[in-house]
Amino acid sequence: MARWIGSLLAIVTCLSGCGSGGTVNPPDGRIRALNMVSSRATVGFLRVERVEGTLGYKQSTGFIVVDSDTYTFNIEVTAPGATDPTRVASFPGTIDVDRDYTFVITEPTPNNFVVTAFDRDIAEAPAGQTAIDLMHLASTIGSVDLFIEPPGTPLPGAQAFAPAIGPSNAVLEGALPAGDYVISATPPADPNTILFTSGTFTLADGDRVFVTLADSAGTTTSNISAVLNFNGANGTQEVFNATAAPEIRFLNASSQAGALDLVIDDNFAAPLHPAVASETVSNYAALASGTRNIKVAPAGSMNAELDQDTTIPVALRTTLLVGGDLGAIVGAQEADDLRLFPGAAKLRLASGATTEGPVNIYVVPTGTDINDATPVTPNFQLGFSPYLQFLPGDYDIVVTASGTTDVIGAPVTVTLNGSGIYGVVVVDDAAARIRLVLIDDFP
Question: What pTM did the predictor assign?
Answer without folding.
Answer: 0.89
